[in-house]
Amino acid sequence: MVGEEGAFVLGWDEVLTEEELSVTLKVLCMSEEEFKEYKEQDGWEDDSEEEENATLSNEALSRLKTPCKKLLYDSVLLTLESYGADLKTEQDLLNNKEAYEKLSRREQQALHVRYGQKRILHQLLELVQ
User: Fold this and answer.
1) 51 touches 8 (CB < 8 A)
2) Distance between CA atoms of 103 and 98, rounded to whole angstroms?
3) Which residue among 28, 30, 44, 56 has the highest number of C-beta atoms inside a 10 angstrom radius?
4) What's the CATH code of the domain at 28?
């Protein structure tokens, strides 16, 4: 469902791998009985018209059912824990000109990437709280 890397791609305004995330959330939030029924009905091929027209914009994420929101929230927390430093630490480093200039160009670029990733993840946390 998720692909080789096992990751979803999030942007500032929407989920960029929305089909994979939609299917994954749907399946992970199903009861065992619902999952068996879904498989038996070949639910993997064509979902309802409602799902075909749904996009996972930030607004749509905030309207997900509670179990899906909890699953996303917990997943984001686990992802944030995998980073060595929190968002505030990264922001402080970006704002500290002296410390920032001591970093190599590559370290500066990595800092910007991590900071951007963490900001997106924090935004997602707010949407699914």
Assistant:
1) no
2) 9
3) 56
4) 3.90.1420.10
